[in-house]
Amino acid sequence: MPCNDTLIDSHCHLDAPEFAADLAAVIARSREAGVRHWVVPAVTAASFATTQAMALRFGAWPAYGLHPLYIQQHRDDDLALLAHWLAGRDDAPLPVAVGEIGLDGYVPGLDMARQLQFFEAQLKLARDLDLPVIVHIRRSQDLVLKALRKWRVKGGIAHAFNGSRQQADEFLKLGFVLGFGGAMTYSGSQRIRKLASELPLDAIVLETDAPDIPPAWLAGPPPTRNEPAELPRIAAELAQLRQLALPEVIRVTSANVRRVLALP
């Protein structure tokens, strides 16, 4: 579904191994579909260089962070390395956020105390560097909100939001916007669809989380790899839920990404 307006995929992992073999083709399909800007959050210290190289090659906006799903891989000195990468350098694009960071209460066996240690350390870095954050909040919304109230960063994106309306409002009070993507396209995702239809439009950004969270039309079986080129169809789903024209949804949600991440 090509579109004439430019969409921003506010969260996709173009640096992931799943794209290594055909990334140029993935980017070409994305641009043809009208998605010509991408925010790409790194997830481990080992991936920072790959994220930067991808951003330099294709003009993506990088973010650097230590993802809670990989808490068993993260070392204490990764935080110092993260601080170095967040400071940037003259010949590379500056990071637009600290991310992907946060907490995960869904996957069993993840040490929540250590997750909190790394999350708060990264929030302190974001506050000290005056950077927004991109937060992972799976089954951890209240714990994430508590940490955000403590550290008072400059806002950011609550990625793949699936909490309550009350929790949504609390994120908005802290200067965040909420990311909606593939999960919103499933008819059974009633709470997410209700939130997407009722929240202020200036509180919403669109994302794919590619290669993950495939939209309903890619669900399979077997499931198909998600790509940024699917974002116009996700935008059309949001437009239909809100009974708005698609160009208006594209215009506002893309402006929201630029505002909260201070993008050019």
From TrEMBL:
InterPro entries linked to this entry: DNase_TatD-rel_CS (IPR018228), Metal_Hydrolase (IPR032466), TatD-like (IPR001130)
Keywords (A to Z) from UniProt: Hydrolase, Metal-binding
Alphabetized GO MF terms: hydrolase activity, acting on ester bonds; metal ion binding
Binding residue positions for a divalent metal cation 1: H11, H13, E100, D209
Pfam families: TatD_DNase
Top-rank taxon, per record: Bacteria
Binding of a divalent metal cation 2, residues: H136, H159
Family designation: Belongs to the metallo-dependent hydrolases superfamily. TatD-type hydrolase family.
Name recorded for this polypeptide: TatD family hydrolase
Organism: Chitinilyticum piscinae
